[in-house]
Amino acid sequence: MILFVLFSCEKEKDIDTEKPNIDITFSEAFPQNCDTLYFGEAFELKAIFTDNMELGSYSISVHHNFDQHSHSTEVKACNLDDKKEPVNPFVFIEEYKIPEGLNEYNPGLRISVPANNGNGSFDEGDYHFMIKLTDKVGWSALTGISLKMKYR
Questions:
Q1: What are the pLDDT digits (tens) for 124-138?
Q2: Which domains does the chain have, with CATH numbers?
Q3: How far, in Å, are 2, 13, 14, 25, 66 from residue 6 at the CA level?
């Protein structure tokens, strides 16, 4: 009976019940709410991703906000242009793996924003920049940034 109790009392495994965190509140973070990105130029994503156990991956998506919709993740409202119909809006969707074993990561990702596509120049105006961070077991966090995209 003693052997049964010893072998059946397995140590409880740590169970991850916390979602990861996306920090874009420090002064060097980029982009931040209401910033401007420029077509035909590159920028560096500066954020800090953390998790209580282990990070997994992150994705970046950019979509137009010409209809002035909102997401519950936006920090504050920015001055919006007048509503308009999209003609050739810029769209960006990419996913990136985080090296294994990390619970803190600064992506330092360089993103090139093209000036145009096969349909011509992209529409200038209001856009949303979304960061989705997923930890190793699947918990996720989403942060939305409102910004302008323009030509210089």
A1: 999 999 999 999 999
A2: 17-150 (2.60.40.10)
A3: 6, 16, 20, 49, 64
